[in-house]
């Protein structure tokens, strides 16, 4: 069984519901993510699993601009390392 919902950004969110599954522990969710790499998943505050779509051109461009500015700032201030959002740390 599944429920579909159109989000406020026009994206289709599909939530699968099954009595065969129980909630994953944090360690099980981490393993699930690692086994399904390079797909990206997140959990919301209700611990629902959400498959994350790859970013589009506009998002990618804005992220690159922000990352460049952050990298330049950090190089000047020498406060440590920076990572992008895809780093699994």
Structural summary, described in words:
With about 90 residues, the protein is an alpha+beta fold. The chain has two domains: about 1-50, no CATH class; about 55-89. The protein has helices at about 25-35, 55-75, and strands spanning about 1-5, 10-15, 40-45, 50. β3 (about 40-45) and β4 (about 50) form a beta hairpin. The protein is elongated.
SSE topology:
Elements: E1 2-6, E2 12-16, H1 26-35, E3 40-43, E4 49-52, H2 57-77
Antiparallel strand pairs: 1-2, 3-4
Strand elements, count: 4
What's the rounded overall pLDDT mean?
A: 77
Principal-axes geometry comes out as: elongated
* Class by alpha and beta content: alpha+beta
Instruction: Determine the fraction of residues in helical runs and give it as a percent range.
Output: 25-40%
What is the ordering of alpha helices and beta strands?
EEHEEH
Please tally the helical runs, counting DSSP H or I stretches of 4 or more residues: 2
The end-to-end span amounts to: 34 Å
DSSP strand (E) fraction? 15-25%
Largest sheet, spatial ordering of strands: 1-2
Biggest sheet, open or closed, and with what strands and sense?
2 strands, antiparallel
Low-confidence stretches: 1-6
């Amino acid at each position: 069984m599944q429920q579909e919902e159109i989000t406020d950004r026009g994206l289709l969110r599909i939530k699968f519901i099954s009595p065969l599954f129980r909630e994953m522990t944090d360690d099980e969710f981490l393993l699930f993510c690692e086994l399904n790499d390079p797909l990206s998943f997140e959990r919301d505050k209700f611990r629902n699993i959400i498959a994350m779509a790859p970013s589009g051109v506009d998002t990618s461009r804005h992220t690159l601009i922000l990352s460049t500015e952050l990298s330049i700032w950090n190089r000047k201030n020498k406060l440590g390392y920076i990572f992008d959002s895809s780093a699994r740390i």
